[in-house]
Design goal:
single chain, 233 residues, mainly alpha, Zincin-like, 2 domains, 11 helices, 6% strand, disordered N terminus, binds zinc ion, metalloendopeptidase activity, hydrolase, Mitochondrial inner membrane protease ATP23, metalloprotease, EC 3.4.24.-
Amino acid sequence: MDHSKQEEDYGYHLFPTRNKDKHTKNSLSESLFTFNRKCQVMLKFAMETSPYAKLLLSAMKSSGCNVLNDRHFTCEDCDGTVSGGFDAASSQIVLCQNNIHQQSHMNRVVTHELIHAFDHCRAHVDWFNNYRHLACSEIRAANLSGDCTFSNEVARFNFGLKQHHQACVRGRALRSILAVRNISREEAEKIVDEVFDTCFNDHAPFGRIPHSKRDAQFAHREYENRNRYYANL
Ligand SMILES: [Zn+2]
């Protein structure tokens, strides 16, 4: 082994941008750095422009839960096809930088996880022992985040049935529960069905099911104006 060459490379892999020689650049750490950077930029954009995210953030703020980009979000590599998660123990939202490549996908994941964070903030959710609590929040997240909106469903070739939105919400809630808890499909179905109507009809803080960005914009405006009448007295 060429000793001088080995010394030259020493440590450079930690700082890929400092290495000016293209041939010895460590492409793995460079691409991880790029993924992380891209994830942060898309997160910032979602927080500033998505009416879904903006409504959830102001609703949480008025409930005393202030969400901070740096403290409450983390971009990480995840296993399989997982897009994100909410870690109740640390109140942190994990965004899977290796699986989120488009802004529209980022917006949906941020919204979905913020709905869990909103539920965590407003209620004493027992995520680990009470499967009904978990099921309820998964139903709400699938129903209100746009996971089951028309265009997403068309993209998945599931379009057709009139009751499809409900079926989609039920299916996604089931999948989410089975991904994080070691219970049988039958058991999960039973729990989801028990709480479905109550949780499907709980639209807080949107006041309606936001089927489109436009719906979410209306909901956000209504939310911002909710105290206006009283404030003018
Ligand atoms: Zn979820």
